[in-house]
## 1
Amino acid sequence: CNINTLQCQRNIDLYMEDGWRDDVYLQRNLDGGDAYLATMLRDEGEAGKYTQIAMVTAPLAAEGDVTYLTQGTNEVLSYRAFDSERHLVYYYGVQNDEAYKRLLFRVGTPAADPIYQTPECISCTLQPDCGWVSASFSSSAKYVVLSCAGPDVPYQVLYELDGDMREVLEDNQAHRDWLATKDMPTKDYRLIDIGNGFQAWAEFVFPSNFDDSGAVQYPLLFYPYAGPDSNQATVENQMTSRPRESWGLYLASSLNVITVRLDGRGTGGRGQNFRSPMWRNMGTVEIDDQIAGA
């Protein structure tokens, strides 16, 4: 809208007939001031629609144009920061359909150096392996504190983006050493066939002495939650990040119970075709998928 004349121009039309729209409007005054960033659904052909990072122009006298900075079946989860000097967008996303992980990526706008036009995973280079990351950026988006919350013991690193500095702020080595003296349960992440042409990620927590020969029978306990866009089967460390849910570790380690968290239809990170069956059907498909998984 023109604040002097109070005249407004329609920017873009968005329509959804088979689910929720979760478009989020983010960074404004982009690349010269006449564009903004948003997370929007993009049609990826037979794979369906996936949430992507988009750049939308906002001219005063015409409708806007949408340029998708990301595409494909690696779904964008949420926007994190924008480097206005180098025209780089940082966001959480999924890679290789592994919705049990949350990784940090960056991609450039059309004004960025061409080397940044393809999304790059920033957290994938962290060691020990970091499958669930939280990022806190400086105001310039030149520095970031990466908090790795799993699958290993959580740790924090101060990272100079495109620089040489990586300083460990907290490695929790004492806790890591203490855990090494304990008989801990083991975890595994598997795709489970739930019918209707779908597969769901499931987190299994096994007793440390688990016998996979079939000679021993174990109780099996499901944690049946699958709210819209939620994820329960994640590599996030439950003991520190989700203490109320660490009872599954206790059951496995003390009572030899196998616990399972299954992310069926309706959960996030796997596109609209997987998310939308719950639309206007809550209390049906997510329960069916838990039963099918069992």
## 2
Amino acid sequence: IKTDDQKEVSGLFGVNRGTIKNIGVINSEIKGKAYIGGVAGWNEATIENSYNTGSVSSISHNSDSYAGGVAGYNSAKIENSCNKGSVSGNNDNSFSGGVAGWNEATIENSYNAGSVSSNGQIDSHAGGVAGLNDIKATIENSYNKGPVTGSAPFISYTGGVVGYNHREAMISNIYNTGSVSSNGQIDSHAGGVAGYNDVGATILNSYNSSLVISSAKFDSYAGGVAGWNESTIENSYNTGSVSSISGNDNGNSYAGGVAGWNRGKIKNSYYNTDSPIDGKTICEKDEGKTTAEMK
């Protein structure tokens, strides 16, 4: 299928209020302005055992937009579903995710293998599974193996699984093997699992094994699990390299094997000391282990 890029809501289905099951979207090119998804633009009920292999892109100005390989915006449940196509967003506040651009409820047993990019004209949120995992939302038993990139003139949040893990949201039993790259002109947050882990949010039983890079004109935060941690990271680890770069002499670049900047709790979590961690300021609260110790 091929859709008109002038539509506000676009996908194989626009708004889903029932059950979508055992659906595959292939050889497609889905474009639109606001809520754009391979299977559904907006999911208000259930999507299960479904997949997308075509391209999904949201192109808009003077508005927010949500692009997801399965659903642009998920306010209910996505399970046992996947995306293998490219997902991109280009608008004022951009939310791009391999499974959902914005997750307000539940994603489980799902994965992304396509490239994800978010280019915000103000702020950007990009994640291998979801661009933003909203308040009390849950992502579990899922993974990403596609490259994730985010850029914005103000703040960029980019994560292997989630760009921004909101208050009291949960990420559990997750992993990422795709590269993560974030560029924000003011601030940039890049994490192997989450770019930003907010107050009350949790990352549990998760890991990253790929490269994480954050760059900013002023302050840059890069972490193997989370770029910035305000809450809890538990039973998680990172084996990938981490690099944080500031392009301004007055700026700062924070890097950590687990968290680039930590104001929360890190429990039973560690990183591989044989993988380089580069930045002006290295998080000393992160625990490291050698490759031999991790086996």
## 3
Amino acid sequence: FRLDGEVPRSQGEVAARLAFVWLVPAMDRLFQGGASARRRFLDRLVAAFEPAFAREVAAYHRALALRQRMLEEGAEADWLEGVEGVLAQHAVAVAAARRELVRALDAKLLATPIAGFEPPRLRLDCPIAAQLAEQPALAVEEALRASMRAFRRSGALRAERTGEGGGDGADFDLVDPRTGRRGAMLSSGEQRSFLLNLVLAHLALVRERRQRGPILLLDEPFEGLSPAIIPLIAEGVASIRAMGKGVLMAESNVHHIPEYVDRLYVLERGELMFTGTLAEAHRDRDVMRVIAGE
């Protein structure tokens, strides 16, 4: 991968110029698994919203790894204090950026819902973010340093949750406003609908913030959805296209391919066999045979 003819030196360099957001079938289980996958999903959204976030996350993990190694090697307290100060600074910056995006997204979902949808409510479970709602960032940093100091003096060597030893314990969830059910209790179709709703709102939010939105990658976005919901999602994707933003969609059901697509690429056993418009594809029997899986 090259950016302006050069190999990027960091993820942050790429994020400053280009951002991607994607939804794939495996994400139907996003809310059944562990918090780390949801945290990575949230962090991709934050990085598209605020390009400097990627550098903060990288710096946080470097400081966390360094502190862990120093704990295991029995480093002197003064050295650990210095690393913990850096770690606390980056941990608070990361939590603040996550909190800002979740609040902005929640407001955007309520203000501009997709027709026919009851938008999900968003929930960020993060001890640091909760403290930031009540205290200035500097006070939260000092509290985190004190927590790490107490954790270290207890003789423990590894942190499991934020607020103990600097570990990242943040989690992200969706809530169905009609029933109060959280993501893990929703059907795969409900989760997909809510995630698509969320991503479309995020694209609009990023466009307002950065004057350009990320490229949206969708893999089988309509799989498992109610027939009544599919046209609504297609309209939402159309609104992103109308903004002049790129949408790349992988779809195996020709009936789910929106009529407004600009270009269609058909693969047969990994080889490109057709490129053209949807109307041209409908007129080509060989292409339709491949799409139908015959």
## 4
Amino acid sequence: NQATGDGVCIPRDPRVAPRRRLRDRCAQGGAGHTASSDAESSQRNGKNQAGGSGHGGKSAAPMPTAFGLKLQTARTDQRAMTVLVLEESQRRKWDGSDDVLFYAEPRLVHHLDQAFRTRLTALYAERIPKNAVVLDLMSSWVSHLPEDKPLERVIGHGLNEKELATNPRLDSYWLQNLNQNQELPLPDASVDATLIVAGWQYLQYPEAIASELLRVTRPGGQVIVAFSNRMFFTKAPLIWTDSSDQDHLDYVASVLEAQGWSSAERVAETTKASGVMGLLGQAGDPFFAVISTKPT
């Protein structure tokens, strides 16, 4: 499940734009993982196999295709420390087909309204420190980051390459299906902030993801999970489809805290629709977020 040689494995892929391709340092990559994007679309590389998540019956997988991403061997085995929160029945989805099929075509549209996106960018401006290394997990063609915030690097992840390649804020990205393999191809303590927007609701093994995020986050770093009341219903596990908005906040917080993250902050706000509808008093998409910090 690890990269070979000096630990830097960048598979050559002719589909990737030159700005994202690094020199091919080895033939293959090591361990890999999965995730869906903010725009909710994905396209998994053919080399990305089902892999070990620390849960029974799952085998190890090769590293997912990485574009401009250095894969290191130095890492802590966080899987053994994962604390399960969900019952197996709560992980089931109405549509049990491979997520890659659902996200195969890029969706270059906004799934959340302007009011939500504006509030999200404002939250990022408040919480993400300057010159941070940011992981945009389950990303897409936009990252909603403030334009005037200097960042050292933004690493993207998702299931659809066209969406990720279109995203101007990403310095590198990789493709992976997190519902098949939850092990992230990042070194320990390498990220300052992880962002997940409208993505957590599709995770079937969120405990393993939260545990891995704790591993790759630097002490004092944070994770920001944002969502609204929208979803692709058939692709969300029952823990999400059968719960209320407040339940969603508590569920995300409980999973994070069980893996060792600090006591989570919950944000629940109404928004005002933009344009004429806002003038008429219509509400926008409700804004929810769970924010937690890695203990120092």
